[in-house]
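Students often ask what a 'structure token' actually looks like in practice. Rather than answer in the abstract, let us consider MFS transporter, a protein of 420 residues. Its sequence is given first.
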Amino acid sequence: MPSLTTLFGDDAAIVDDRGFRLLLLANLSPPLGTALVSPLLDALTSPYAVSEARIGLMITAFTAPSIVLIPLVGALSDRVGRKPVLLVGLLLFGVGGTGLAFTADFRAVLALRFLQGIGFAGLTPVIVTSLGDLYEAGEEATAQGIRFATSGLTLMVFPLLAGVLVSVAWNVPFLLYALPFPVAVLVWRYFEEPSSPGRGRTSERGQTRALLRLVSQPRIAAVLVGRSVPNFLYIAFLTYNSFIVVRAVDGSPEQAGILVAVTSIVHASAATQAGRITALFESRLWPLVGATLSMGVGLAVIGLAPALPVALVGGVGVGAGFGVSLSLYRSVITGFTASLRGGLVSVGASLGRIAATVAPLVMGIAVANLAGALGFVAAVRWTVAATGLLCAAVGVACLAVARASPPVYADSVTGRVRDA
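Now compare that with the structural description of the same chain:
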């Protein structure tokens, strides 16, 4: 397989695994939760008869349930298995999404989006955890990177397709949410998950106590907080990139779209190289430090960019750091434990969702407070730049704490320990 080896390195053989391919198919759906709806919001205000302010509730209704449910679903997958949870997640995501094509009642729309958000909670964290079950070391880093890259490609292709389909009719793009149904059939028929060590050996209460003890260990706590930094940074970029391009450097909305596209392409490409990068170092510490600095400095460059080409250079830094950091963080987290892997991955995912939710709010407050003294454009510039540098510092500090902390206590069932 010379071509795949060239792309992904020595661990490229995992692409031939049926289980891996099925997980990649399942992974096509979660990114569509917000990416498919985002470009349609303006066009949906008329058929739903709601204001521009209220239409944003379609995003909130989708993201809200996963903040609470992701840790619960992760713990459930440790007890009953990944496959049942993944199947239910696919079906709920598909039902909630395709149902949007058949109603213009906004209250029903929000209920369907909430249902879709419940389904989302059973997808990405379970897919990430399943990859940790199937692979170890460099193979797992490669698997997580390829999975993350497919998310980036999904974010590039499907929103464009939705923009074309909405010109046919406002509800046609929602039929794309039927994708999970055939995938669920394939997963049900062909996916064989490995047995998870310790599954069913402890009560739900005992499992929760064990998970709390695990996340309270300094090394794991620091990694979980550090893992939320890329989410904060990337949402900060998506929220303010258009203001920087259009208002600060006199660009156009199309050029703002180019900046997002370049960043997405770079993050998808960088994610595929996570396994190779891991193989070059004795631990994941230094690659994570480099990726964190790349994101933070890249965002600062975008914030202070005098022209679009400079902003594009910053976008490359953001994309490269985002693709590598989340792939490696997920690989590190799955390696801390086997018996509680689903719960731990879900805690990390939930913290990432919280960071993504908080980022626009915190930055909006900062811009509002600075705008009176500096003006809106300058306030946005300095807020974006300061956010990049501050998050880079926080991310590196988390990694330093993780490295200096005592080793993680051995897994109670397997005795397995892996340091970051």
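One point worth highlighting: DSSP finds 19 helices and no strands in the chain. Ask yourself how you might have guessed this from the sequence alone, and why that guess would often be unreliable.
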